[in-house]
Fold these 2 entries.
Entry 1:
Amino acid sequence: MASRVDVARRAGVSPAVVSYVTNGSHPVGAATRARVLAAIEELGYRPNAIARSLATNRSHTMGLLLPDSSNPYFAELSSAIEDAAFAVGYTVLLGNGGGEPERELTYVRTFLDRKVDGVIVCPDDDSSHAYEELIRARIPVVVTDRLNQDVALPAVAVDHAGGARTATEHLIGHGRRVFACISGSSGTSPAQARAAGWADALADAGIPADRDRLAFVDFTAEAGWAATRALLERTPDIDALFAASDMQAVGALRALADTGRRVGEDVSVVGFDGIRLSDYISPRLTTMAQPFDAISTAVVQRLLEGIEEPRKADAGISILPTELVIRESCGCLPVGAGAGRATYQTHSTPAVPFAHQEIPSTHQGAK
Amino acid sequence: MASRVDVARRAGVSPAVVSYVTNGSHPVGAATRARVLAAIEELGYRPNAIARSLATNRSHTMGLLLPDSSNPYFAELSSAIEDAAFAVGYTVLLGNGGGEPERELTYVRTFLDRKVDGVIVCPDDDSSHAYEELIRARIPVVVTDRLNQDVALPAVAVDHAGGARTATEHLIGHGRRVFACISGSSGTSPAQARAAGWADALADAGIPADRDRLAFVDFTAEAGWAATRALLERTPDIDALFAASDMQAVGALRALADTGRRVGEDVSVVGFDGIRLSDYISPRLTTMAQPFDAISTAVVQRLLEGIEEPRKADAGISILPTELVIRESCGCLPVGAGAGRATYQTHSTPAVPFAHQEIPSTHQGAK
DNA sequence: TTGAAAGCGCTAACAT
DNA sequence: ATGTTAGCGCTTTCAA
């Protein structure tokens, strides 16, 4: 590998001049600049980013800690984040916690050791030790998806409770009577908030929200399937189901079909997330869609602010809007034949982007 | 951030000794070692990996270049690779080509600049310029999924053609007569090989494989949907469909349902990949499953060999077995109600792991 | 067993 | 406009 000195020698200048031209940080005579450029070209020289990082204390790298990037929701989120990072010249180091606190910590340390400029984190659990380690390191951090009020870190997420409430209201609008909810891992704020939104909507409508029609399980199709089976066992006449994630909804649809129920007719289901897949499964899933791109842009943007103006960075949370995408699973559109893909009918929850903002109250009484 | 000198000062030793104990590379007196360890503990010292990389010329980092990690297939693959890398103490830098050759190149250069110890690559297209750049850099590389015979790089993948052939034979076993195939982007070897396997199986069975019943489109649900609609328009009586990826199959099932066809009864469908989702969609997808973990382990293993013994590394390709997972979409199992998840019936294509190995001929005549 | 010192390849302040 | 030099934080000979 040709290094800066090689280029300097070849161009007949001092090593510093090479840096001047590669960084454009310093005026350089047109002639010398040309010679240097030529030497760079001939030698195929590329500055060593490691050495540069050591000297500048900037790696142009960010760590991304997720629970499980093989889950379509996180896969779409991480891809959007990678894209937003790429757009601003950053590369991402990816780590999956995989439900192991140890592993999350290991990744945080790995990121720190490697001197990432900042880290984006969505811990497995709201009480993750990753937070402490990150705070102690005084490194720019943005939390996404999770909204833990106990930790003073900048965060970006959607209005989980509001979205769940709107989704549930839609279900109520279908005249359903027996409601169930499959929410996510109980240790996560989205799971809690979405379940709360579901319960609030029911309360406002005077519909009983029986505790044994609410399950907190993993954000996966498998867990959604198992939870639905269990729910159905206890309450066979469930006719409305709100799933706190599309993957759980996928499992729920499976379970509903397995037990001979016609989704959209016998029972209405609405999911949450709006992963691409939701428009292809049968029946097409009505879901509260998250704005992946907006979230990712905001996450990266805020992290960048934290990196560039550490003193100015605040711990406010950005709440982005969700949008109800109405399709077949709720019963609005006829299931199956001839439908083509849906033209969406949407209801949005309001956005309050980039504000210092209270976490939306879980229950604000009747509107 | 406490640095090595701080620790040394506090422990009353020279900086070198600190390295000796953190690396265990050198004998150190029990007493001093204890003092150093204590100082490390008290200061919360962690070696700067960047500085270490600069000094050792090893980053314990690998680049992973994929077409699109938001696609469930790549999401599962990348997650498995991340896991395998984690297990051997490596961290992964993730990059998505996103169908843009420019972007692929940018990522390769970024990886190179950051001195990753090796890169795992699955280019958008078999003729990717990423290969050249990587070869020129003389850095350890392992290609995965793609099997480009023109480039002498170690590779790990499944027997695309063989798997497709077996899948198609299964379709033939169902007594179907009008066969279609939706394969992937024509510039990729899996797409070509799987299409060839499909054609070969038909040829052997004396069934016409009409060219206009074969489509090469993106490996996505959307493309699978559109291709199926187009195929159906031209040949309404298709009764057997082989999709070269599960996501395309998902789109195909959607299209088949849209046009009022009953999958499993009117038309048999078999996919390829075995993503987790395939067991949850309706109808459950019969698919030729890839061994994600084995692939990932092999990929990382071979990359490690390339890193540790550069001279010994060879460009052989490792072919891993696929396994036909039989479910509902082909017509073997009754669709829907009461089925529970399937107990699998499997047929494997043989594995020829870690061998110098010809790319399986696309047609080897009748067996 | 411990220490001194020379890099690794680059940036940046300072000098010319 | 260009060159010199002192780090950045660590590893690693080589001496002591």
Entry 2:
Amino acid sequence: MSSNNFKHDLFTQFARVGKALSNANRLELLEFIAQGERTVDVLATLAGLSIANTSQHLQQLRQAGLVTARKEGQFVSYRLTGDDVLILLNSLRQVAEHHLADVERLVNTYLTVKDSLEPIPANELLQRVRDGLVTVMDVRPREEYDAGHLTGAVNVPLAELEKYLDQLAADKEVVAYCRGPHCVLAFDAVARLREHGLKARRLETGYPEWKAAGLPVTSDSRD
Amino acid sequence: MSSNNFKHDLFTQFARVGKALSNANRLELLEFIAQGERTVDVLATLAGLSIANTSQHLQQLRQAGLVTARKEGQFVSYRLTGDDVLILLNSLRQVAEHHLADVERLVNTYLTVKDSLEPIPANELLQRVRDGLVTVMDVRPREEYDAGHLTGAVNVPLAELEKYLDQLAADKEVVAYCRGPHCVLAFDAVARLREHGLKARRLETGYPEWKAAGLPVTSDSRD
DNA sequence: CTGTTATTCAATCGACTACTTGAATATATA
DNA sequence: TATATATTCAAGTAGTCGATTGAATAACAG
């Protein structure tokens, strides 16, 4: 029956996408790429992989249709092929969180104060920004901030957080965000801000999701 | 940095889910399970696999948190752990359809209708029903159909689909629907109808949404 | 208790995966 | 033109995966 073959062929193609998602390093690379176009060696550095290895992973992602490459001079930049990839990644994460006991255990182990950190949803943050009630703080490294950030956010790399303390308006609540819902930088920032007596929460999601939702972003360079 | 380990551990867990989705046979099993609880040997028959092999795949799916098992007498029945798994499967399919050239080639090779993967919106369906251009097919089990269905729809439970093939007007397009936008029954029905050379699409939403929109419904029994 | 059925476990084999190393291919710069 | 840089390709190794086969559980029937 050729129809059975059709079905099986189709599932084989779907499985190619699944296979691309079956490796932790590739998922991490995807998360970095989700924040904006990245070159190979930047990605290798961010993920802590060798360049050749990174290149190979990127080609698997490309063959699975999750990323596309663009060559500019000596550099090859990768970016997601579309917002549906982001949706796919988020539903993967959601299923994993929901159904894998190990994930919950992990999160609880590392993020002891999880519930006290009440994340703020994106739409609520948007409203509060408009009302001038909050300071939005981007705690990612400067390069990532430059590549794109929430409009109105200030960049405070985690290492320099303490330097900026007295520049923060004491009456405004601080909302920190970073790369995604599981990015620990924002958790750390909130914990440290609170140690210094400031009101602080974190954004429920992260920069890629904010951007994908069509909410206002700013990039300081091309990108 | 302990946070790097945390992050990597987390991605390793996500990758477990991805790995479960990385094999065509497992994806096919998942689709069958999505239609309702199934026992091991039924699944083995449906997928054309040996029982031992099916059992192994099912356990991988279970360890990835995608399905759960329930033992009743001699039989072990598997079902999806939740609706978010369905959402994940659909976004996987969507990304694959969107970005894998091979999928498009496959679909175009086997299917006569080109824009066929696009679901039809409710208002458009309503118009086409009035124009007598389509056969509306409710692929849910009979009890659900009896409790309420789109006015004018015929009930063809998925298991009996092949029996009804010659009763379908060959010149009319078939529009299948079931429980909601992510209900796989309709996907499956469309795929199988197309395998038999019929024009088929699925309704963008499902019965609950149709009813909620105030569009015409009929119930055959009390209710 | 014996035999049957449904499912899982265990052992095996060929194929594939992740990563490393070192070379090849472009592209820019001096 | 020669040289450095960014990326990809190719080959090799240890480890994992998918499927088959046959045995091991477990629940039921006679």
